[in-house]
Structures are given as C-alpha cells and as structure tokens.
Amino acid sequence: MRKSISIFGSTGSIGCNTVDLLVRQGGANAYNVKVLSGARNVELLAEQAIALGADMAVTADEASFSALTAALVGSGIQAAAGTQALRDAAFENVDWAMSAIVGSAGLAPTLEMAKSAKILALANKESLVCAGELVKATCKKSGCVLLPVDSEHSAIFQALSGNDARNLSRLILTASGGPFREWSLEQMATATLAQAVAHPNWDMGQRISIDSATMFNKALEIIEAHQLFDIEPEKIEVVVHPQSIIHSMIEYKDNSIIAQLGAPDMRGAIGFALNWPERRALPVEKLDFGSLSRLDFTHPDEDKFPALRLARRAMEIGGVAGAVLNAAKETALDRFISGDIGFLHMAQLVENVLEDLHLIANTTSSLSGLEVVMEVDHEARGRGRVWSPA
Ligand code: NDP
Ligand code: MG
Predict the structure, then answer these.
(1) Structurally, how many domains does the chain consist of?
(2) What is the CATH number of the domain that holds 111?
(3) How far is the CA of 67 from the centre of ligand 2 (A)?
C-alpha cells in the first residue's frame, strides 16, 4: 500500500526539498499524497499538487484562494484557504506528515498533525519552543511518533539510536556561526538585510537565515533539544563549527562522543525522517575525507550572540517563556526586515520583552492549551512592536 503523506509548508525551503525527495522516490506512484499547504506562493503550490497528484491544496492566505482555484482548474484537486481550513486539513489521518510552516503559525497545524498522523516529521522547531509539553503530550496520547527534521536534532536522534539516553552526559549542538562569525560587534551593528540573509553553508528560507546570523536559530534549537530529548539545559552545549559537516554530537557518561556527519544538505535529515526506520539512498553529496581539509571548533562569543544567553534565561524562567522568546524574536525579525530596527536591536528587543513578561511566562503552562499559548504569543508581539532602542 502506498504511504499516505501530507506536507504543511510545501512551498518553503524544507517543503520544496521534501517534494523533491518524494518525486525522486517515485512520486504519485509510490505515495498517496493527501494535502499540500502553502501561503502566498499559490502557483508553486498548485504545480506541486498536480505533480504529486495530491487530493487537496490549502493556502493559509484567504486572499490567495481564487488564484489557487484558478491554478488548479481541471486538475480535480480540491482547493481550500484560511487558517481553519489548514487546521482541518492537518487533522486528516496520514502515515507521515511534514510540519514545515515557518514560525508560531505552524503550532496549531502541528498539534492537529500530532493528533492524527502516525509519524510527525517536525521541521517547525517553533512548536517545541512555544509549546513543547503540549506537543509531546498530544503525541503521547495519540501514539504519533515525533521525528526531528532540524539537522542537529536529527543528528542527535541518529546518534542516540541503540543507546540509552539516560547515560547521556552532554549534548553538543554544532553551529556554523553564520555570516557574522568573524565580524566585530561594531560591524554587526550596521549589518544589512542582504548581509544577514547570506548564509555561508546552508540554503534556507529568509527568516531562518537571519536567525542563523543572530544565532537565534541556535537559541531556539537549544530549547528544542531540551524538549525533544528531555535533557537538562546545563547539559546542552553549543560549539561553533564553521564547516557544518558535523551536524551535532552526544557524549555519554564514559566521555565517549558519537557524532553524525554529512554534507550540509537538508535532504539528508528530511530523507532520514521520510524513510525511517529504513534507510534509502539520498541525493546528498558523499563526504570525501581526502578533500575535507579541516574541521574547526570554537566556543561561541555570547557578547556578539546574546541569543544563546536568552535561550538559557527562557529555560530558567520555564512555563511558556519559550513562546515569549519566540514571539518577541519573530516581531524583532519583522522589524529588522522592514528596516525599522538594526541588527543588534533584535536581541535587545527580545531580552526586554522576555524580562517584562517573565512572571506571566513562568506561571503559565502550555498544557493549558493552544489558546493560552497564543494569548501569551500575542502579548509578546504587542510589546515587541512598541519597543524602541534606548
Ligand atoms: P520558508 O520561509 O522557506 O517556508 C515557509 C513555509 O510556510 C512556506 O510554505 C510558506 O508559504 C508557509 N507559510 C508562511 N507563513 C505562513 C502562515 N502564516 N501560515 C501558514 N503557512 C505559512 O521556511 P523554511 O522552509 O526555511 O522553514 C520552515 C520551518 O523549518 C521553520 O520552522 C524553520 O525553522 C525550520 N527549519 C528550516 C530549515 C531550512 O533549511 N530551511 C532547517 C531546519 C529547520 P508561502 O511560501 O507559499 O508563502
Ligand atoms: Mg538546525
């Protein structure tokens, strides 16, 4: 029987890589594609849905509904639009669902997938950052298997297999250091959008590329790892590894370290999740150790990248501090992209909002439900929008 599949955020960077793998692995002949979703890029969404013979294409953007319908004319593929349609589609039973919407907009659909999919391939790290307890409890209740797609967490998942997580002594997340690894703070203060988006190793969506430049991406990943692997924050370490060949490592009590290596290509982690528990050939470049001249490692500079400190602060506050951190970060990102604030202001804004709301965050649990988390998210965004540099 063909495996039934849905991809939420199929028009994004992770989504397109997922579609590419599905096509290479037999497309509609091999998979029963149920739902593909996007937002503004409805031409691509329709093209993907037709190529994979999907049952349904959903755009989160209601204004794009007529364009989607027009692009699907004659295909027999159903079109839908809006956030409720997205949630309903995410609730459909499938063997494998990919959660690859960007930002906390991905949380509600992720929770629906966690209720109804057999396997949830999770790229949307924000879901775990904002509501890790709720996502895990939802998967536990339904029996859904949660597989990480983030390359670091996929590496850890792979390194952990066959080993007992209780024997872990350290989890080492690698970070490329982004485009500003060797810049001074003074240079970073005037960094432009184009400079922030130009990631040295990974080809990713605009927002996560800027998050790599601030290292907010790594900050989210620390919290993501804490949630996914139930490991104490003090056991999670970040090491800057500019070549992005080691995707992350784990250390056991006996100081033995297991690393997962590969070329920096997200199709490695996506393909691992797609084929799990099997392994299949993937279109990822083979590592040639003869031509890999060196692998470098340094400690991150937390004065230049305060995001790492803020992730630890959020875990110390507990409750839904991750949701506050993420919402403030998303607002800061919007303001940086629109040219309203400078590059270094992003972390200042997040710190300010996190401290402002730390009591509310600390006394709120994501287990109270999605609405409660989204209220806190809303409050943090409101504060983030009115923050101004001193
Ligand atoms: P992109 O920005 O490339 O794509 C985002 C996707 O979400 C698109 O399909 C977009 O639709 C859709 N979308 C945007 N806004 C909304 C909304 N409000 N509601 C519903 N859908 C929306 O992101 P990435 O693929 O880079 O990242 C996706 C997720 O994966 C993020 O959580 C990111 O952190 C994570 N991730 C990404 C990696 C990467 O290599 N890119 C690596 C590891 C994790 P449209 O384009 O049609 O408007
Ligand atoms: Mg990552």
Answers:
(1) 1
(2) 3.40.50.720
(3) 33
Name residue 20's amino acid. D
334 belongs to a structural domain: no
Question: pLDDT of 33-90, one tens digit each?
Answer: 999 999 999 999 999 999 999 999 999 999 999 999 999 999 999 999 999 999 999 9
The ligand placed nearest to the CA atom of residue 156 is: 2
pTM for this model (two decimals): 0.98
The single residue listed with the structure tokens 């250390």 is 251
- pLDDT for the residue numbered 193: 97
Q: Is the bond into 109 cis (omega within 30 degrees of 0)?
A: no
Give the Å distance between the CA of 99 and the centre of ligand 2: 15
Ligand with minimal distance to 211 CA: 1
Residue 137 lies in a domain: yes
Q: With pLDDT > 90 as the criterion, what percentage of the chain qualifies?
A: 96
Give the closest residue (by CA) to ligand 1 atom 2.
205
CB-based pocket (< 6 A), ligand 1: 9-15, 38-41, 60, 100-102, 105, 123-126, 150, 202, 204-205, 207-208, 266
114 in a structural domain: yes
Domain coverage including residue 21: 3-148
d(CA 241, ligand 2 centre) in Å? 13
| Residue 316 belongs to some domain of the structure | no
Where helices occur in the chain by DSSP H, the ranges are 13-24, 27-30, 42-52, 65-72, 83-90, 107-116, 125-142, 151-160, 185-189, 193-197, 206-214, 216-228, 267-275, 307-317, 321-337, 345-356, 358-362, 370-386
pLDDT at position 209 is: 95
Residues 6+ apart with CB under 8 A from 368: none
Report how far residue 336's alpha carbon sits from residue 314's, in angstroms, rounded to the nearest whole number. Answer: 22
Render pLDDT for 197-234 as a digit per residue (tens, 0 to 9).
998 888 888 999 999 999 999 999 999 999 999 999 99
Which pLDDT score is estimated for 203? 83
Measure CA 350 to chain center: 19
Q: What DSSP string describes 39-92?
A: SS-HHHHHHHHHHHT-SEEEES-GGGHHHHHHHHTTS--EEEESHHHHHHHHTS
The pLDDT of 137-151, averaged and rounded, is 98
